[in-house]
Design brief:
The chain is of the alpha+beta class. Helix content is 34%, strand content 33%. It is built from four helices and four strands; from the N terminus they run E-H-H-H-E-E-H-E. A four-stranded antiparallel β-sheet has the order 2-3-1-4, with helices on one face. Strand 2 and strand 3 form a beta hairpin. Helix 2 runs antiparallel to helix 4. The two termini are 31 Å apart.
Amino acid sequence: MGMIDISNKPVISRLAVASGIINLKKDTIQKIMSGDIKKGDPIQAAEIASMQAVKNTPVILAFCHPIPIENVGVEFKFVDDKIIVEVTVKARAKTGVEMECLQGVTTALNTIWDMVKYLEKDKEGQYLDTSITNVKVIKKVKGE
């Protein structure tokens, strides 16, 4: 058990893209779009949190190697009662950046949830309409 030995692998370009969806009430989506969230702008906060999570992946996930992240891109798409988050990570390294991408996506989604949870709870404090789904790596490229 432990880290995989990558000492003999060459440093090459790495790219990964991951995405995920947060399902929210339509009213919550409207309040996000109109800038009416008590804690501030969830999209701006989620973008910053995502980038920070990407850079800190080896601190959070015990067996991930620290790698030199060269670029992080975070995009948000509003579709009806959903926000789709897509994170792209680039590096020149001996190992891939998929886990960094996934960490960025899940952190962005969790940040949005945290900032709007007061709007999402029902009278009993339950989240009947709120969920995070479809977190996946949608693209992986090495050596280009």
